[in-house]
Amino acid sequence: MEIKLNLPQSAYSVHIGELPNLAFETKVAIITNNKIAGLWLGDVLQKLRAKSVVIVTLKDGEEYKNMASIEEILNSLFNEKFDRKSLLIALGGGVISDMTGFAAAIYQRGINFINIPTTLLAQVDASVGGKTGVNNAFGKNLIGAFWQPKAVYCDTKFLSTLPKREISAGIAEAIKMAVMFDKGFFEFFENHDLKAQSELEFVIKKCVEIKADVVSKDEKEAGIRAVLNYGHTFAHVIENETKYSHFLHGEAVGIGMNMANSLALKLGLIDKNEQESVKNVLIKFEIPTSYKIPNLERFYEAFFLDKKSAANKIKFILPNKIGNFIMRDDIEKRVIMDVLREFSESEK
Ligand SMILES: NC(=O)c1ccc[n+]([C@@H]2O[C@H](COP(=O)([O-])OP(=O)(O)OC[C@H]3O[C@@H](n4cnc5c(N)ncnc54)[C@H](O)[C@@H]3O)[C@@H](O)[C@H]2O)c1
Ligand SMILES: [Zn+2]
Q1: Which residues does a 6 A CB cutoff place in the pocket of ligand 1?
Q2: Pairwise CA distance, residues 135 & 122, whole Å
Q3: Closest ligand to 155 CA?
Q4: Per-residue pLDDT, 310
Q5: N or C: more exposed end of the chain, with fewer CB within 10 A?
Q6: Confidence check: pLDDT of 308 > 70
Q7: What distances in angstroms separate CA 344 from CA 29, 250, 255, 339, one per listed residue?
């Protein structure tokens, strides 16, 4: 199965299904980490033909998504005399694809790269759309570039070694797309347990189609692409307060969606049944929905540190019935505090 992205400067396909044989006449570097290399590098190498193949193995973890790792990638490319026709292949989750894409964007002013995502989160979200970059002391993803891959290959066999929590975190981002854009797709999560490979492939296909559509309308996030941040305004504060060590990103997004839905309920955008049905689907896939806010005022102030909160206005992406969205930056502090209070008093 192949889904095409048509962007003003580039066009590429996302292939869903078994990884095919890949042949290149250029030098290729596979960027991966020590964990994934141990599990899947041999498999991928068997399918790859190229002029030469270099492996760059980084340390595993979001804490290594930084400029030092980018330097490490670039130095390997210079050592191996990569030129502007050479190719990078990201083999890993979102951390690896974000860094590989960024290294590709800046090596000799830009070379090609391909994504082979090995986490569900990367297959449904991170590997498509061309946002690349790293973290620094000032925050997450603050350094980066828009740089599109030449192709993406999503093979669900890689997910067979992924821990259950990581699967749930990926499902959270998929539910995000369903609640924003497609009621029928949301009902799929209500009616299926995603244990079968065919069900997972269906979810990946739907998410890639939605993301392809959104990104082709708004590559640089001037408008509708921001809708993919549903749940994230809250999630970023939670991740920050818990020092990125307690929740996986997708788990924090689960809680964030539940918080956003409480706000949507207060504003009359969804009803109690709809709020409950999203929460029930999250719980069904073992995605957390509760977080006890320790300090309400501090949580509220932290919204303004988000790079998406321009000009002292907090932008909330909310469901407007399931399958539709609305962006609001005019919500009174009093209303927001009422929602936060619900999450400080009890486990919601
Ligand atoms: N560019 C985008 O549009 C975009 C979108 C969403 C998220 N992101 C970024 O993606 C990152 C999160 O991605 P992630 O959730 O994939 O995390 P990750 O890349 O850290 O992977 C999660 C963990 O799973 C391991 N792993 C990967 N594949 C595996 C496999 N097949 N079997 C066993 N273990 C495996 C990794 O080594 C890691 O320990 C964040 O840095 C986030 O900022 C980017
Ligand atoms: Zn996310």
Answers
A1: 33, 35-36, 39, 60, 62, 65, 92-96, 98, 118-119, 121-122, 125-126, 129, 131, 141, 158, 161-162, 166, 169, 249
A2: 17
A3: 1
A4: 60
A5: N
A6: no
A7: 48, 21, 13, 9
pLDDT digits (tens, 9 = 90+) for 27-75: 999 999 999 999 999 999 999 999 999 999 999 999 999 999 999 999 9
Place of tokens 């469901």: 319
Residue of 6, 24, 4, 23 lying closest to 14 (CA atoms): 4
Which residue's structure tokens are 């307060």? 241
| Region label for 315, one of left (φ > 0), alpha (ψ between -120 and 50) or beta (otherwise) | beta
Question: Whose atoms come closest to the Cα of 232: which ligand?
Answer: 2
Q: 149 Cβ partners below 8 Å, 6+ apart?
A: 12, 90, 97, 101, 112, 113, 114, 115, 127, 128, 130
Average pLDDT over residues 288-297: 95
Q: What is the mean pLDDT of residues 326-347?
A: 90
CB 162 within 8 A of CB 120: yes
